[in-house]
Amino acid sequence: MTQELQNGRFPQLGLCLLCGLPAAGKTTTAQVLSQSVRKHKGWQCVLLTYDDLIPMEAFIQMEGPEEQQSLMGSWRLYRQELLLCLEHFLQALITGCHYSPQNITETTWERFVCCLKEQGLISVRREDSASCQYLIDFTSPSPIYFVLDDNFYYRSMRYEVYQLARQYTLGFCQLFLDCQVEVCLERNSQRKQPLPEETIYAMAQKIECPNPEKYTWEHHSLILKSAGSALEDNLQMLDLLSAALENPVKPLEENTELKEIDRAICATSALHQTDQAIRRIVSQTMKNAKDNNVALCELRSLAEELNRLKLKFLEGLRHKSNEENQCCLQNNTFNINVTSAFSQEADDIVKKYLNKK
């Protein structure tokens, strides 16, 4: 442990979220950003790439609704554990105390520790890796930026990290890569382990771009059209990180900010519940069609029509942005009416296929 940390003079700390669709260029941007930060600012930059820290199977979309629900729960658990790992390490940086992580699986902790070790931030004795007995391997009091590279397609996902920044008075900013779906699909197809196209399409329907005008906590945000290779983009990114570090998140923000994000989170949760309900309807409709001996080629066409209908319904709900509609989204009766309307239209579609027999 360095003398500065032992005396309680820990360096400035910042959290930067790198958001966007899969294959939007986040990894390239992260590498460019890390090099620029070290070269032009002399800061330490730690990359936390979720694709590397979360097992591949957690990103693969499953067929049935039960499998999807199980997979979603597993994926959320990994994300929560990674955030806990980061919080534990931030506490170590700030307090200078060793500790043992709680509510974190050994596999997740080992992945996180290995990531920090590879970047030269810590050293770990083999026998102590599971108990979090490590040494912090830097001596400079210069700032440290943790860059979290993930999709973060829901605003509520990003707000969880913002809350962490607020809890410890850290700098917080967002880099959002705005890349066309077609470009992401092309890049994804060239990967060694490409994601299913359906996963990227579904994420493109749900992704929420930063909106600083509506959400004050997203003030330090930058939307990029390229993968961070242009000089102008590099300068903008460095300016953003500097501004966020100079203006860390205060422990207590105005109630208006809390109310606006609470509304957004509630609406997102309601949308998710409606999405799950519609998925169950689609699954049951497909099962009924199969039980009624609808031909395989017709089942494929039926699945495509139902998926288009589902996307139309969910997209319509996502555009309910005023306060009255937000309240509607949070109303259970409203959600029941939406799923009932979807069920009716789905029945009308499947009748066409049953009449073809």
UniProtKB/TrEMBL annotation:
Record keywords, A-Z: ATP-binding, Nucleotide-binding
A matching Pfam family: KTI12
BP terms from Gene Ontology: selenocysteine incorporation
Keyword DNA repair (UniProt): no
UniProt-recorded Gene Ontology molecular function terms: ATP binding; kinase activity; L-seryl-tRNA(Sec) kinase activity; tRNA binding
Gene3D superfamilies xref list: P-loop containing nucleotide triphosphate hydrolases (3.40.50.300)
SUPFAM superfamilies per UniProt: P-loop containing nucleoside triphosphate hydrolases
Xref: InterPro entries: KTI12/PSTK (IPR013641), L-seryl-tRNA_Sec_kinase_euk (IPR020028), P-loop_NTPase (IPR027417), Ser-tRNA(Sec)_kinase (IPR052648)
Keyword Cell membrane applies: no
NCBIfam families in UniProt: selen_PSTK_euk
Name of the protein described by the UniProt record: Phosphoseryl-tRNA kinase
